Amino acid sequence: MRLAIRHLPSTPNAAASVVAAATAVAAFLFFRRRHSRYSSTKHSSTTGLSAPTPSPLIDGAVMKDISSHSILVLFGKSSQEDQIARTIKVKDTLRLFGEDDEQEEIRVLLMSEIDSIDSPTFRAKPYMDALATDRFGRLLLWSPGLPSTHDVVSKNFCKFPVGTACVADVQYKGRGRGKNVWESPVGCLMFSFTVQMEDGRKVPLLQYVVSLALTEAIKETCHAKGLPQIDVRIKWPNDLYLNGLKVGGILCTSTYTSKKFNISAGVGLNLDNDKPTSSLNAALQEMTSVSHQLGREDILAAYFNSFEKLFEVFLHQGFEVLEELYYRSWLHSCIVGTVSLE
Ligand SMILES: O=C(O)CCCC[C@@H]1SC[C@@H]2NC(=O)N[C@@H]21
């Protein structure tokens, strides 16, 4: 069976206090979130995490507080990426919003400018230690609060090496597919990264590789931590479901320039927020009675480890080779077999 194809459409101390302030705001918002009714209705799809109505997290006054202090911390896996990070900071040309939107102030910090790379809410050290890629995820931009990670990578595509990723604790202009808003509270893993491709016939299939890498990363992380497997499945074309509820979504957008497709891939995965749908850690807690077992750092590193392998196979051998694996993660089918990527 073949897939139906759908087109894709400073000073160290000052810096540390900015991080601490933003983190405190994020924590405060999380507290509010937990203690207020989760108002997730939707624009037009049944996305559990897509919402048209302002929630406490995307409401003007409070979010403006974060938005006026938008910071990005640049983490590199090696000295090579650190050097790139320094160049990006010196050039100081990063954009946060698209053409029609007002440009917001953005403060770029290097990891050497914050007290400890473990002090922010995203723990970059375990992430970098677990990352085993040659390209994807090696330059990581982290922010406590951003309009959208997708905008950061797509609007600044050429300023980063291919494979650069941006992760945020919260987004206040999170984008879903179509005109949907992706509600982006603390506890949801939200990241975007860049990919470049030359063969336009393959570009529409990339979203399947992005989705597949996510289910593989979840499986591998559960396996590595000795946790039971959670049955996260791909609902075509690119949603992730757990026990009949949407827990994740994929957004891929592309532009064509200099004979290359510049693709921004965005992933939202509900790890910890158990309302209004479900979360991976809630499912694990039901099975094991232990809470918060999957961290964003674990899944993100496993994601890029998995994506890089799958992407290589996809580029050089085609999606056909991945189909069996893909269908095994599909909500709509059940296929038994083994696929080796070695
Ligand atoms: O199901 C969908 O509609 C796709 C949702 C994609 C959401 C992710 S969260 C990280 C990245 N940044 C965004 O603004 N959107 C994507």
From TrEMBL:
GO CC aspect terms: cytoplasm
Transmembrane segments: 12-31
CDD domains hit by this protein: BPL
Domain of life: Eukaryota
UniProt entry tagged with the keyword Chloroplast: no
Keyword Protein biosynthesis carried by entry: no
One MF term in the entry's GO annotations: biotin--[biotin carboxyl-carrier protein] ligase activity
Keyword terms, alphabetized: Ligase, Membrane, Transmembrane, Transmembrane helix
InterPro entries the UniProt entry points to: aa-tRNA-synth_II/BPL/LPL, Biotin_CoA_COase_ligase, BPL_LPL_catalytic
Gene3D superfamilies per record: Bira Bifunctional Protein, Domain 2
Limits of the BPL/LPL catalytic domain: 125-315
PANTHER family: BIOTIN PROTEIN LIGASE, BIOTIN--PROTEIN LIGASE
Similarity section: Belongs to the biotin--protein ligase family.
The name this protein goes by in its record: BPL/LPL catalytic domain-containing protein
Source species taxonomy: Eukaryota, Viridiplantae, Streptophyta, Embryophyta, Tracheophyta
